Every structure is written in C-alpha cells, then in structure tokens.
Amino acid sequence: MKKRLGTIAAAAILSLANIAHAEPADFEQWVAGFRAEASAAGISQSVLDDALNNLSINTRVYELNDNQPEFSRGIWDYLDSAVSATRVANGRTKYQENRALLTLIDQAYGVDAEIIMAIWGLESSYGAIMGNYDAIQALATLAFEGRRTGYGRSQLIGALKIIQHGYANRGDLKGSWAGAMGHTQFIPTTYLAYAIDHDGDGKRDIWNNLGDVFASTANYLSVSGFRGNEAWGIEVRLPTDFDYALADTSIKKAVVEWAATGLSSIRGPSLVDGFDPNIRGRLIIPAGASGPAFLVFENFEAILKYNRSTAYALAVSLLSEEIAGRSGAVVAAWPRDDRPLSLSERKDLQQALKDRGYNPGPVDGIIGAGTKKALRSFQQSVGIPADGYASAKVLEALK
Ligand SMILES: [Ca+2]
Predict the structure, then answer these.
(1) What is the predicted pLDDT for the residue at 9?
(2) Distance in angstroms (rounded) separating the CA atoms of residues 113 and 99
(3) What is the pTM of this model?
(4) What is the tally of structural domains in the chain?
(5) Residue 358: which domain range?
(6) pLDDT for res 11
(7) 195 CA → ligand 1 middle, Å
(8) How far is the CA of 303 from the centre of ligand 1 (A)?
(9) What pLDDT does 16 receive?
(10) 341 closest CA partner among 71, 67, 68
(11) N or C: which end of the chain has fewer CB within 10 A?
(12) Which residues of the chain have pLDDT under 70?
C-alpha cells in the first residue's frame, strides 16, 4: 500500500513528518530540566506545579510556527482589511463608549485616544478575537522545539513571573498561539515591563478590564517615545526627478529640509503648513516609486516598536485618523497590478542580480539593505526609477 501513495498523500505525510517533532517522553524530560531553570530564576515550586504539571505539547502551535508562507500579500490588500469600513465604524463606536476613560489615560500618559483605539482594533478587533490558546502550553511548546525556542523559553519564564507576582491567575493567561495575550496582545515580557493596574485592584487585567488595557497600551507607547498631539506622519508628493535613495531608514531630516528636496503635502500646497518645521522624519515608499509616499515621524517609530512592520504601523496610523473623524484615505494609487514577489521569486531576483555582477547578499528571499542597494544599481543602469522595490515588473526586467 505504501508504494501506491499519491503525491498529495506523500506531501501530507512529509509535512506531518516536519511537524512531528518529538516523543511525549522527551517533552516530559524537557519540562523537568526547564523546572530546574525556572526555579533558579526564582519561580516557586507551587507556581511551577500549578503551571507545568500534566502539561502537554500543542501540535497546532508547531503547524503555525513552521508555516512560512510562499506568497505574500500586497500592502494594499492588508490595508483594505486592516482599515475596513467595519473596523472604522466599530472604532468610532468604541471611542464614544470609552471617551471618559480615554481622556484620563491620555492625560496620564500623553497618548492620543485614537491611537489606542486603532491598536486595539488591529490587535483583537476591539476585544472580539484575543486568542484562546493556553499561553503557558503554547510557550512551552515553542520553547521545547522549533525555530523560536529562545523566545519560547524567555516568554514562558515571563508568564510564570506574572502568576508569581499575582498580576493574573494561571487560568487567565489566554492568548495567541505565539503567546500574545489580551485585548492588545502583550507578550509576557512586555506585560511584565509595561502593563498597568489602572483601577488599583491588584491585577493587571489586560483580558477583562479596559482601564488596565488602555493604560497598559498607552504606557508601552509612551515609553517607546510616543508624544501626544504630534502627527504620526503625512502622505507626500515627490518631484519627478526624485532620488529614491533618500527613502532609506537611516536618512532622517527636518520637515523644512525635506521641503527643500522638493517634497510637498499631497493634500495641500505646502509641506510645512500645520507642522513644526523642525520635526524630523524619514521617507517611506512601501510599494516603490509607483505607489504612495509618506513622511513619518517619531510617533510612527513608537508604533513600530509595538510591531515591527511598516504595513502595521501605517494601518494603525490611517485607522486612527478615521476613528478621530479625519480622513485616513491614501490619496495616491497603490500599484495593484504590480504584484509582490513570492518567496521563490525573491530568491530568483537575488540570483539574477548576482548573475549580472551585483552583490545582493545571500540568496535567501529576504529583501534587506544589500538587495535593495543592488537593485537600485541595476535600475539606474537601465534607466528606471531606482526605488529598490522588489516587484514582478523589476524581476521581468532583470530576466
Ligand atoms: Ca486592575
């Protein structure tokens, strides 16, 4: 029978083999070793018994941890769902419902209410989807084996500390498969460092108490450098002969300096109107030269500390505008016909650059600074805008 397995069945077995990591006995042995480590880190025997006795692996966590998608979505598709009409409408309702509480939080932490609402909306759809995994089990599973063992170990110790401090009970620790918990999805170490007991009941309850949730989120943003009443950024128009090498994470300039390079506001005539001309920012072109451009300031960087994804920070920023009753619409069109490259195509692109004598760095499908630089050199050599953006069109041009 085994010889007659079709390709699909064989592939299924192969993928199961990839995720059938180890035997239960190995996990029990691992738990015993981890107990000693956690005990040395100061976790009491009773907390360890409560959390780790009869603990088992959650194989679903391995499936999700091993999943590295071949195809990536365009940022425009992500923004369409992140800043959907439903999420905007729900955000405005939640803002109204919690206005008094949010005013208190804004006064205490200097973080604008609409930003807290936007993060809440993106992290859990305003508390509707917080994740129902047992965080202790999920983190122990990650700590035991796979590509996040270091993360799993440190977060598991963090989760045990949360219980030991009495901030939350063992049964409260519910979250995503990767251990992000509560309304705004704090991982345990973030929780330990920044979660706040706003109502003073002794618990930092990011699962049930909105005061604790909003204060914790505002505190984290504030410590990350967020400043109330300052803009996250602005959509800009670039001059036709613009040097796209200026759109680089390492290049920050004051608004007046950017205006001198030819940038203008896409909505108004002047870039400096409505801004402190000395506020500093960097330029991002998330979909390359044929898509929108944004000048982003320190508050954008603070949002990035919450989640290191430009698409995420842009979604929070645009959603916050809509929740506050301003327009979060992006004016310039996204290049919806120029699809993002798949993982194997990104590797093809790096190989093609290498074959042409450029140095894109390792052929790993990760478009980092080296690949962008090589891509810009190639684009310059053939006279197309040197934005370093890896798209299907530029791959075609390379081949
Ligand atoms: Ca509390």
Answers:
(1) 37
(2) 8
(3) 0.90
(4) 2
(5) 343-398
(6) 38
(7) 10
(8) 24
(9) 44
(10) 71
(11) N
(12) 1-24
